[in-house]
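EI: anyone free to look at a 275-residue chain?
SC: sure, send it
EI:
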Amino acid sequence: MPETERNKVSMLFEKLSKKGEKALICYVVGCYPDIETSKEIVSTLIDSGADIIEIGIPFSDPMADGPIIQAASLKALARGITPSTCFRFVNEMKKKYSNTPFLFMTYSNIVFSNNLRNFLTAAKKNQVDGFIIPDLNIEESQEYVGIARQLGLATIFLSAPNTAKKRLVEIASISSGFVYMVSIFGTTGSRSKFEKYTFDAVSKTKEITNRHKIPLAVGFGISNPKDGRNMIKSGADGIIVGSSLLKLILENENDKEKMLFYLGSFIKELKGVCR
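SC: here you go
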């Protein structure tokens, strides 16, 4: 792998692989419910076993997100949270968690309307380690990928259960950090169960990512340790959890102590199946 692609996300997966572990990636909406509480939430997630933190930059039209994440995102926007706020948040968290990769999950409108190079450079200066941009097609990503790799930022692209083999090869070739496989059709959100097609798709995608020496992480709908275990058994190198965390935060927004306890317990259970 070229040196420019040896970002912190790639190195984290290599480290975990040597220990026989899978990655636990945790998604939260940036600075929700407020900045100070968000710091405590992220600290609890990392201290309880999260390997990578994915920060969703609040956006008014989050097309890939289900109702739980949309609700949190809109509340954060109403409280004045901006991309710059999220940059500063990551920079502050890195003072304590310098070895934990932080990713931004955002949309192309935010990235390109703020001047692509300036935006990615600001992200790097604030110690962001990579990006997930669900609405950015690989055909339109050349400039973004070029700048990101120069800066050592992971470029994480998404695949779906029905993504064709040729397309998977293209995604695996252009991604760095890991390939993000969406486990179901539709938006994010907890699921009561997964269909067989999901596990078949994980196995199929893993064959491609293995060939291209890039990890595969699976997200959307994982809501308990059993789900995570089944994804890993099917071939995932990491699992991504978001809506279930946001649900705990939303339900316990008025009782922070209870919220942090529930989050910590949940993450410890999830990390248990990754070891």
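EI: Confidence is low (pLDDT under 50) at residues 1-5, 187-192.
SC: 👍
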